[in-house]
């Protein structure tokens, strides 16, 4: 009788525990799947932002390059002199902005000039009229296209702009951007991210096994179009195995898809990327999801059996005291083991969450470093002026040494050392930016800043025969970053010297004074002045009125940014005697001003 009762109770407990285990398996599996799906959505969002940021670096570059006189001249002048000038200009732009290639096509699709003109894989003379980015630029003004280069065999993202020239046929400026750093970053991070074109062919992937494979079988018409456009020149797409033979092309963009494989099962999530009609694919292995579900099912099953055993022992308490004691010891041991296992699992999950947070911070920092890459042109422009001053100072020191004037040569070498230290401080700003720190502000005497700027610009002013007049107010102080404020003022002073270069009586004057809570520093010249309709545009990046190739139009943009960081502003006015009056307004440092005045 006791045996029959035990058998019935055991059957009930086993049934209830089995049902609970089955339910726990599916609940735990669905929870983990939802969490993994949320992680995939986050990966899609971060990937979309990083791709958009990388492409936006070059989106406006073809149109900007097309405004240069050397490029526009190719529409009517294809002489060797004009082509050489355009080649040199394009090569210089590539060195400073970092695209893979930059080239100019005529209205027939023939390459006239290219940044890689001096390499064995030069684009010059090649016909690219079959490329969609060329046809789209002629029809609509702009084009974009991702493909493997038929000349270099290197993939890239092509951005094109049509440049219309009055009285001549238009030309097309094309920039080829290299997106492979994104692919390398995904591979290094171990994430399974891929980008597919509108045909469904994967062209960027963190998993090398996915590259240049269609997500699903390609239609014959689509395959024929890809072959005609030579999108993936050298890749046999007809023999490429689809990543999934069961993928539905009409699926909603926000749904998850399980893609079975020979050695793994992947959950994939898709997101559209406009305006190219691309697809971003984020995938993760779901085998561990089944393992976690099984672990939870086993835990529930074990707990159910334990509960049933405890209930049975309590019911048989009076008859089986000894058995109850032994059973109690066994149950305590089992509970301790399960508690230890659960504690280990909790620790494992905490470590996993911490690793995910660190990975996310790493992606954010990578995007910031991409922003630093976008600042590279401004950095070169900022360092080039101290280098020019250093070169002039060292040259002067050499002449003085040849003349036996060692004391004067020593002074020049001391100034050269100061310039080197100045460039070291500039480089320090880059390290500060990479560490996510900010530059330290300090209290600066305005007359000291003006003296430093005049010293840096003195070789240029002496060569032009211009004596810069200074009328500085006494005991003026501001709170700013020394090297940055000097750089901004030096840019404005050099612009003033350029403005009076061809004047018969060149004059440049620096004035400073305090108006209320602001310190104003004015640089006045008697040049030709600035047209009223250009005053708002001259501070835009890459805008310049110079046609000699002496700069890229970044000086005023950099100076404006520096002064804004100091809490000030720059404005341009007409000078009383003609020319331009450039005014820098910076908040005054009251306490520092009082100390300076007391010291005097």
From TrEMBL:
InterPro entries noted in UniProt: HATPase_C_sf (IPR036890), HATPase_dom (IPR003594), His_kinase_dom (IPR005467), HisK_dim/P_sf (IPR036097), Sensor-like_sf (IPR029151), Sig_transdc_His_kin-like_C (IPR004358), Sig_transdc_His_kinase_DctB (IPR017055)
Membrane topology (UniProt): Multi-pass membrane protein
Domain Histidine kinase: 378-590
Transmembrane segments: 294-314
Annotated EC: 2.7.13.3
Keyword set, alphabetical order: ATP-binding, Cell inner membrane, Cell membrane, Kinase, Membrane, Nucleotide-binding, Transferase, Transmembrane, Transmembrane helix, Two-component regulatory system
Record-linked Gene3D superfamilies: 1.10.287.130, 6.10.250.3020, Histidine kinase-like ATPase, C-terminal domain, PAS domain
Reactions mediated catalytically: ATP + protein L-histidine = ADP + protein N-phospho-L-histidine
A GO term, aspect molecular function: kinase activity
Protein location: Cell inner membrane; Cell membrane
PANTHER family for this protein: C4-DICARBOXYLATE TRANSPORT SENSOR PROTEIN DCTB (PTHR43065:SF46), SENSOR HISTIDINE KINASE (PTHR43065)
Function: Member of the two-component regulatory system DctB/DctD involved in the transport of C4-dicarboxylates. DctB functions as a membrane-associated protein kinase that phosphorylates DctD in response to environmental signals.
Protein name: C4-dicarboxylate transport sensor protein
């Amino acid at each position: 009788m006791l045996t029959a009762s035990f058998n019935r109770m055991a059957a009930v407990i086993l049934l209830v525990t089995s049902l609970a285990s089955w339910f726990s398996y599916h609940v735990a599996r669905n929870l983990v799947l939802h969490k993994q799906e949320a992680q995939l959505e986050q990966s899609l969002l971060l990937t979309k932002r990083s791709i958009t940021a990388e492409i936006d670096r070059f989106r406006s570059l073809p149109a900007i390059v097309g405004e240069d006189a050397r490029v526009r001249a190719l529409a009517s002048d294809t002489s060797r002199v004009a082509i050489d000038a355009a080649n040199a200009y394009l090569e210089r732009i590539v060195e400073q902005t970092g695209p893979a290639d930059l080239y100019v096509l005529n209205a027939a699709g023939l390459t006239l000039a290219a940044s890689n003109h001096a390499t064995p894989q030069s684009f010059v003379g090649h016909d690219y009229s079959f490329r969609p980015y060329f046809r789209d630029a002629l029809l609509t003004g702009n084009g974009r296209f991702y493909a493997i280069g038929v000349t270099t065999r290197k993939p890239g993202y092509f951005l094109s702009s049509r440049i219309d020239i009055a009285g001549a046929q238009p030309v097309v400026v094309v920039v080829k951007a290299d997106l492979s750093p994104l692919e390398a970053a995904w591979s290094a991070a171990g994430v399974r991210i891929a980008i597919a074109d509108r045909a469904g062919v994967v062209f960027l992937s963190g998993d090398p096994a996915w590259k240049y494979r269609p997500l699903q079988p390609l239609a014959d018409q689509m395959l024929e179009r890809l072959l005609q456009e030579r999108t993936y020149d050298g890749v046999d797409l007809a023999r490429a195995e689809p990543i999934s033979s069961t993928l539905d092309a009409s699926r909603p963009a926000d749904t998850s898809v399980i893609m079975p494989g020979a050695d793994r099962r992947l959950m994939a999530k898709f997101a559209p990327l406009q305006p190219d009609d691309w697809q971003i694919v984020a995938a993760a292995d779901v085998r561990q999801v089944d393992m976690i579900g099984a672990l939870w099912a086993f835990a529930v099953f074990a707990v159910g059996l334990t509960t049933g055993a405890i209930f049975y022992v309590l019911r048989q308490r009076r008859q089986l005291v000894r058995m109850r004691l032994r059973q109690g010891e066994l149950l305590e041991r089992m509970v301790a083991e399960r508690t230890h296992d659960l504690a280990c699992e909790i620790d494992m999950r905490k470590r996993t969450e911490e690793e995910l947070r660190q990975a996310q911070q790493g992606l954010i920092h990578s995007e910031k470093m991409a922003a630093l890459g976008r600042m590279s042109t401004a950095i070169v422009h900022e360092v080039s002026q101290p280098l020019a001053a250093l070169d002039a100072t060292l040259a002067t020191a050499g002449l003085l040494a040849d003349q036996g004037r060692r004391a004067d040569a020593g002074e020049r070498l001391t100034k050269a050392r100061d310039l080197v230290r100045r460039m070291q401080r500039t480089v320090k700003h880059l390290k500060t930016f990479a560490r996510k720190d900010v530059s330290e502000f300090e209290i600066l005497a305005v007359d000291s800043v003006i003296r430093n700027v005049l010293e840096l610009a003195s070789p240029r002013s002496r060569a032009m025969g211009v004596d810069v007049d200074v009328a500085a107010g006494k005991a003026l102080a501001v709170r700013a970053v020394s090297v940055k404020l000097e750089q901004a003022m030096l840019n404005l002073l050099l612009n003033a010297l350029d403005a009076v270069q061809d004047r018969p009586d060149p004059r440049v004057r620096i004035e400073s004074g305090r108006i209320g809570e602001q310190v104003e520093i004015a640089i006045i010249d008697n040049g030709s002045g600035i047209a009223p309709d250009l005053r708002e545009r001259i501070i835009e990046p890459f805008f310049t009125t110079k046609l000699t190739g002496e700069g890229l139009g970044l000086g005023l943009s950099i100076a404006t940014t520096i002064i804004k960081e100091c809490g000030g502003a720059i404005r341009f006015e007409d000078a009383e005697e003609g020319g331009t009056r450039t005014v820098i307004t910076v908040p005054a440092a009251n306490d520092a001003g009082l100390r300076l005045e007391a010291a005097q």
